[in-house]
Each structure stands twice: as structure tokens, then as C-alpha cells.
């Protein structure tokens, strides 16, 4: 259920309209290309995760496959990225609830959310899993309901509706109204909508049977993306003109309003809040486990590597929660502009992490195969792995030629170089001190 839920985040509910506005119906091509890259990256990560389960996940694989500096850099880059996203998620959720309850300040709502999930994550790991299970169930139910209603609308099977045919799909400007440039621009928007799915391999390390858990989740990635993402987008571009302002602002609501379903706007807002809170809960978990794993390897403060009696890295969770409270403070100081600031700070960090996953996989595949540890295998190795790496490089080139994306690329490059410099200094100190590193436990 976490594997399913992690593929259905705020990127699907909030970001699809932007992608459609840039590429038109051809945004389907953008989603297929981005989805292909994500499926391949997850397959590689799943192969390594099933063979060597570790709470540090890809940071651990980067370390053993590339070098200590890579593990340090990837771990703290991912931690920083999730901390920034964590603030964006709590900001987005509290802003929507503030519209429902205008008498309560936005920062108070954010404070309530952060406190609640702090308690959930500090108690025991099963609490986190339980909440994510139900969050995922609600999101999946909402998407399935949307797909069912959408298909009925497309074929004119609801009262008062007619089949839509290809009127909008091939309408104003055709399938590619903005040409290949539109597909490229859409690709930059949708590629980051898949972020968060990698947390499955982190969480699975704490399950009773990590190898089976990772294998099951990774194998289902392809049909998840095909059905939920591509299916939902196809319904949108069939039912409404690609340049419809309502489709850009609230794509799911715009489609469901065609079915004359009462209270649809409030219902979808509730689903979006659930998706944001689910992501916040998952990112508190993800940041704490990454900090814990780094500390256990000597790449972070020792205090972050301690466990409570119930097996929770309390100090690492408290650190994540602290930054959650910082985002509450920022909600009070910058309620309108905070979301954009945080999202720009994250930039293209996810692309860097995906690149290192692919490189680590290319270097670890043959040693793991020789040890007979591979229960999940990447298809057509090494050809698809190199193709994935080439597509990721193409994403970077596209970002360099896009005005908005270029700023994010520059900010991420600066952040990466700063963390890399710290990693190299840290590595030299450890080498001169003659200290070793301890691998984080698998569970």
C-alpha cells in the first residue's frame, strides 16, 4: 500500500494542470517518457534494495558502489531535499484548510499538523505504517473513482452526456499544439511529480521480510504509473480543451464537474490535503531514517544514530520535526510566498539522486550477481541502464535551456558542490583519524 500511495502524491493532484498547459494533449508523451525513466530507476534501486536492504537505501548503495564521498553527498542531499519538501507540503495543506477555516491562522493549522505527526512518528514505526496505509487507501480510492467517472464521461454513459470523441484530443492546435518544445517543457514539470516513490526501499528495510517487500513494490511500479498517471491524464485531455483555465488550476475538479457531482470541489480539496499530509508523514520518516543511517556510518552526529526501546531513531525524528516547526514559523512570517521559495530551493536535487542510483547500480550489478543475491533484476542490463542515464542527462540539458528550470538547476548545483566539499573534508578527517564506518542495520 505504501508503494501504491507513494506514486500518488501532490504532483499528480496539483501538477498535472501545469504540464497540460505547456504540452497540450501531448503531455501524455511527457508522462510516458518520465514514467519510463522512473520505472527503470526504481527497478535498479529495487534490485540493489532486495539484495542489500538498508535504511540508508541509495545513499548506502552510492557509498559501496562509488565511494564514501558519494554516500555522504547523496544522503545529506536527499535529507535536505525532503526537509524543504516537508515544509512545502505542510504549507500547502494548511493553506487549503485555512480556506475552510478562515478564522484560524494558517500557522496554527500547520502547528497542529506538525505536532500530530511528531507524536505518530515518535511512538513506533508501526504507527507510521498504519497511517500511510490508510492515507494510501484513501488516495487510491479517489483516483479509482475519478477513473471510473472519467471513462463513463468519455463514452457518454452518464445521464445528460454524449461521447466526446477526439474533439478536444485533436482540437485546438492538434495533439501537439506547442510542438516538441511543449513536450520538453511538460517533461520538466511531470518528471518531478514522481518524486517520493523511492521511500519504499527505505521503509522496506524495517519490514519483516525486506527482500520480498521491496520486490513486490518495485514489480508493481509499471502498472501503477500506467493506470493512475497516464490514465488520469488521458481522461483530462479527452474531456476538456488543453487551454481551459479550469483544467490548469484544478484539473480533477474541472473533469468531475462535468458529471454534475455535488460537493466535488470540496471532496477533491480534501483528497489533496490527505495527499499532502501523507507525503509530510512519509518525509518525516524518510529524513529521520536517512539521518539515522548516515550517523551510524559516521557521516553525521552520533546522537542521530540512537534508537528508542521501540526501535525508533528518536533524535533523528526530533530533528525532522524541528524543521517542521521551522516551516510553521515561516508560515507565520511568509504565508503567501513560502511555497514557491521552498520548491525553488529543492530544484533538481531529485535528478542528481536518480543519476547516482543508476551509476551505483552499474557498478554493483556484477558483484551482487556473482554473490547470487539478485531476486529482482533490471531488464536488459546494461543497455537500459545506460539509456536511463542518457535520458537523465537530456533532462539536465532541457533544464539548462528553460528560464525557470535553469535557476533551479543552478541552485541545486551550488548545493551539491557545497555538500560534496563537506564530504571530501569529512572523508579526509576520518582517514587521518583512522576511524572506520559502521553500516546501518538492515532493520
General description of the model:
With 443 residues, the protein is mainly α. The chain contains 19 helices and no strands. It has a single domain (2-433), classed as Up-down Bundle (Amino acid/polyamine transporter I). Helix 5 packs antiparallel against helix 16. The two termini are 19 Å apart.
SSE layout and pairing:
Blueprint: H1 2-6, H2 10-23, H3 27-51, H4 58-65, H5 68-100, H6 106-123, H7 125-154, H8 179-191, H9 199-204, H10 210-219, H11 221-239, H12 245-249, H13 251-256, H14 264-296, H15 314-333, H16 338-346, H17 349-370, H18 383-400, H19 403-433
Helix pairs in contact: 2-8, 3-8, 3-10, 3-11, 3-17, 3-18, 4-5, 4-17, 5-6, 5-14, 5-15, 5-16, 5-17, 5-19, 6-7, 6-14, 6-15, 7-11, 7-14, 14-15, 17-18, 18-19
Structural key phrases:
disordered C terminus, Amino acid/polyamine transporter I, 443 residues, 73% helix, mainly alpha, single chain, 19 helices
Amino acid at each position: 500500500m505504501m508503494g501504491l500511495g507513494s506514486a500518488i502524491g501532490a504532483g499528480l493532484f496539483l501538477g498535472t494542470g501545469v504540464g497540460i498547459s505547456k504540452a497540450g494533449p501531448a503531455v501524455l508523451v511527457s508522462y510516458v517518457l518520465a514514467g519510463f525513466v522512473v520505472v527503470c530507476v526504481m527497478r535498479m534501486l529495487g534490485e540493489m534494495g532486495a539484495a542489500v536492504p538498508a535504511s540508508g537505501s541509495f545513499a548506502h548503495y552510492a557509498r559501496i558502489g562509488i565511494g564514501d564521498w558519494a554516500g555522504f553527498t547523496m544522503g545529506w542531499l536527499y535529507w535536505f531535499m525532503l526537509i524543504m519538501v516537508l515544509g512545502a507540503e505542510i504549507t500547502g495543506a494548511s493553506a487549503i484548510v485555512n480556506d475552510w477555516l478562515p478564522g484560524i491562522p494558517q500557522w496554527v493549522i500547520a502547528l497542529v499538523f506538525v505536532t500530530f505527526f511528531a507524536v505518530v512518528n515518535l511512538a513506533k514505526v508501526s504507527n507510521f505504517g498504519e497511517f500511510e496505509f490508510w492515507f494510501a487507501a484513501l488516495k487510491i480510492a479517489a483516483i479509482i473513482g475519478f477513473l471510473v467517472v472519467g471513462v463513463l464521461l468519455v463514452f457518454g454513459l452518464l445521464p445528460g452526456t454524449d461521447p466526446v470523441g477526439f474533439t478536444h484530443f485533436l482540437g485546438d492546435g492538434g495533439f501537439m499544439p506547442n510542438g516538441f518544445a511543449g513536450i520538453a517543457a511538460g517533461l520538466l514539470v511531470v518528471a518531478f511529480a514522481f518524486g517520493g516513490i523511492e521511500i519504499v526501499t527505505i521503509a522496506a528495510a524495517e519490514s519483516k521480510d525486506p527482500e520480498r517487500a521491496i520486490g513486490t513494490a518495485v514489480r508493481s511500479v509499471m502498472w501503477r504509473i500506467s493506470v493512475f498517471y497516464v490514465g488520469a491524464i488521458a481522461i483530462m485531455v479527452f474531456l476538456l480543451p488543453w487551454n481551459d483555465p479550469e483544467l490548469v488550476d484544478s484539473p480533477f475538479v474541472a473533469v468531475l464537474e462535468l458529471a454534475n457531482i455535488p460537493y466535488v470541489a470540496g471532496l477533491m480539496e480534501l483528497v489533496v490535503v490527505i495527499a499532502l499530509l501523507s507525503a509530510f508523514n512519509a518525509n518525516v520518516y524518510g529524513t529521520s531514517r536517512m539521518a539515522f543511517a548516515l550517523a551510524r556510518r559516521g557521516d553525521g552526529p552520533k546522537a542521530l544514530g540512537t534508537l528508542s526501546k521501540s526501535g525508533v531513531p528518536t533524535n533523528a525524528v526530533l530533528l525532522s520535526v524541528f524543521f517542521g516547526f521551522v516551516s510553521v514559523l515561516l508560515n507565520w512570517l511568509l504565508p503567501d510566498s513560502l511555497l514557491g521559495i521552498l520548491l525553488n530551493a529543492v530544484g533538481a536535487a531529485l535528478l542528481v539522486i536518480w543519476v547516482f542510483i543508476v551509476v551505483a547500480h552499474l557498478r554493483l550489478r556484477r558483484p551482487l550477481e556473482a554473490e547470487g543475491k539478485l531476486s529482482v533484476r533490471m531488464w536488459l542490463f546494461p543497455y537500459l541502464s545506460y539509456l536511463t542515464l542518457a535520458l537523465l542527462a537530456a533532462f539536465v540539458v532541457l533544464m539548462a535551456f528553460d528560464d525557470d528550470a535553469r535557476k533551479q538547476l543552478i541552485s541545486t548545483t551550488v548545493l551539491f558542490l557545497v555538500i560534496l566539499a563537506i564530504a571530501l573534508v569529512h572523508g579526509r578527517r576520518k582517514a587521518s583519524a583512522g576511524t572506520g564506518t559502521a553500516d546501518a542495520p538492515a532493520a
